[in-house]
Amino acid sequence: MLISIITPTFNAGSTIGDALDSILSQHGSDTEHLLMDACSTDKTLELAKKYLHLSISSERDSGIYDGMNKGAELASGEWLLFLQGDDWLPEGTLATYHEAIMRHPEAEMFCGNCEAVKELDGRWAPVWAVTDPEFKKLTVRNIALREPMINARLIKREVFIGLGGFSLEYPLASDRDFLLRAAKRGIQQVEIDADTYRYRWHEGSSTMTEGNSRTGQLLSENLAVAKRHFQLLDAEQLGIDDYKALRAWHTRLTVQAAMNALESKKSKFLDSCLEGMRVDTHWPGKFLSVFMSSIPGFLARGCRTRSQIIQRK
């Protein structure tokens, strides 16, 4: 078996059909597709059982990353591809990966193009995309400051297992933690100039959201990941470029946390300021710049914060 596709699900009945159909048209004899369901109570399993190419497992887990870890342990393929139950693979993705594997026997990971889309007036409208080969490279700067896009990456199973898989410490941000570990380890990645993943931007997504109830948790987890990777290695061990990237990410996250605290009138504002200044002596000026730039939007919304707008939706 060459490629194992792993799809973790929990109550994904409204979207799972699109995800499975995108594989069905590309599935080959050297490809397996594992559905790791967390005991869904909707129609997810009923729909999944109609797809004969699927290998289905249904048991309680500790979150999406636990499901992906379990799938990686069960997988018999040399390579792992993680497909979420609300996304899909563009036509030709698996053929592209097959060709890349044959052409680059030295590779331990591949990364293609990806995009996020949302349904708007009956059509799929683009939200963002990553196609620049420089932005797809497996570097600390890209993983910290840009989209991690774990699902647009094909990963050698032995590499995934060797890195310890996904940490269950971060229910929403473990993909970024994993890729930071991979970047620091010097895993050999090859970038592919082809579309290999399409994210569905919707309110029910864990990370592809527009300010739902998990946004604050994701920010908190990303900050915890940034602090952890700062603590693991000092500036000399990281290298100056990686150190600056992690510091810039930490500053961005603490500025956002401070802004959120102001909007929600929570007492964590001072904590965010102190955490930011602990790493970046220029933090107050950077926060003030973001604060001042937010005033026109605040006035345009009738002196309401973004949090208030979200709660009214």
Question: What are the defining features of this structure?
Answer:
47% helix, eight-stranded mixed β-sheet, Spore Coat Polysaccharide Biosynthesis Protein SpsA, Chain A, disordered C terminus
Give the SSE layout.
Layout (H helix, E strand, L loop, with lengths): L2 E7 L6 H9 L6 E7 L6 H5 L5 E5 L5 H11 L4 E4 L10 H11 L5 E12 L2 E8 L2 H4 L3 H6 L7 E4 H6 L11 H12 L3 E12 L14 H18 L2 H4 L1 H25 L4 H11 L3 H18 L5 H7 L1
Parallel strand pairs: 1-2, 1-4, 2-3, 5-8
Antiparallel strand pairs: 4-7, 5-6, 5-7
Structure description:
With 313 residues, the protein is of the alpha/beta class. The protein has helices spanning 16-24, 44-48, 64-74, 93-103, 133-136, 140-145, 157-162, 174-185, 215-232, 235-238, 240-264, 269-279, 283-300, 306-312, and strands at residues 3-9, 31-37, 54-58, 79-82, 109-120, 123-130, 153-156, 189-200. Helices cover 47% and strands 19% of the residues. It contains 14 helices and eight strands. It has two domains: 3-200, Alpha-Beta Complex (Spore Coat Polysaccharide Biosynthesis Protein SpsA, Chain A), CATH 3.90.550; 233-312. Strand 1, helix 1 (16-24) and strand 2 form a beta-alpha-beta unit. Strands 1, 2, 3, 4, 5, 6, 7 and 8 form an eight-stranded mixed sheet that branches.
